[in-house]
Amino acid sequence: MSLSGRTAVVTGGGSGIGLAISQRLARDGASVAVFDVDYAGAERLVKQLRADGSSALAVEVDVSDRAQVDRAVRQVREKLGPIQVLVNCAGIEAFESFQSITEVSWDRIMAVNLKGTFNCTQAVVSDMVEAGWGRIINISSSSAQSGAPKMTHYAASKAGVIGFTKALARELGRAGITVNTIPPGSIDTPMLRRAAKEGRFGGAPVEQVASTIPVGRAGTPEDIAAACAFLASEEAGYVTGQVIGVNAGRYM
Asked: Which CATH class is domain 7-236?
């Protein structure tokens, strides 16, 4: 699945799932712009991608800030060219009982997970419309499908991403742009390890939790990246508005 000649932006691309997606798209031939609030992490990845022969750019950006997003997108266009692939992966979580969620906490989750997806998509979509070709892939969460205790704000934000995906797919389909979402489940990332250490799974380690799902193991960031690579490819031109669950059967 060649992405040669395409420019991709991956938000939250400096670590975890976003890092694996950035690596995979670069391996498939795309020039990759890595957006992350952690510039050091993004820059480490970009140095590795360049050493492997890929064209890549690290940009420090908070996706909840539209001015920062617009500046970052201008930088990508100047350095790598028009953007044809966007992966909205940047996200934050919180673990709070519903009654303890503050307005500040609610707004921050929504600002990054949902508004950030809107900001980045609106900032780049004109390139895709002009080209008559584009791929938008939004990383949501299986928690939005199944619900998750003490994560009402997080689940709500990711459910918003799913609705955003479906509505935008209907609007942009005739322009040659596909819009899909991948809701991961139980992916072995630093975020999941931290959640387990904080006792969010009743004190059970990640391996024990993963053993209860049909496939019997935790997913890897590369599992998500593989699905993302397909959705970003030419071969996925007839796939749009879809929720592609990569969760080992955690949610069916």
From this structure: alpha beta
Q: Which of 39, 154, 238, 251 is catalytic?
A: 154
pLDDT tens for 42-64 read 999 999 999 999 999 999 999 99
pLDDT of 41 higher than 80: yes
Which amino acid type is present at position 201? F
User: What is the side-by-side order of every strand in the sheet holding 31-36?
Assistant: 56-60, 31-36, 7-11, 85-88, 134-139, 177-182
Residue showing tokens 């499908």:
145
Share of the chain above pLDDT 90, in %: 84
Q: Tell me whether residue 238 is one of the annotated catalytic residues.
A: no
Question: Mean pLDDT, to the nearest integer, of 125-137?
Answer: 98
- Non-local (6+) Cβ contacts of 226 within 8 A are 24
Closest to 165 (Cα-Cα) out of 130, 192, 140, 128: 140
State the pLDDT at residue 193.
Answer: 75
Structure tokens at 118: 């809107």
Q: How many CB atoms lie within 10 A of CB 239?
A: 16
> What mean pLDDT, rounded, does the chain reach?
95
109-139 core/surface letters (b: 16 or more CB in 10 A; e: else): bbbbbbbbbbbbbebbbebbeeeebbbbbbb
Beta-bridged to residue 34, according to DSSP, are 10, 58
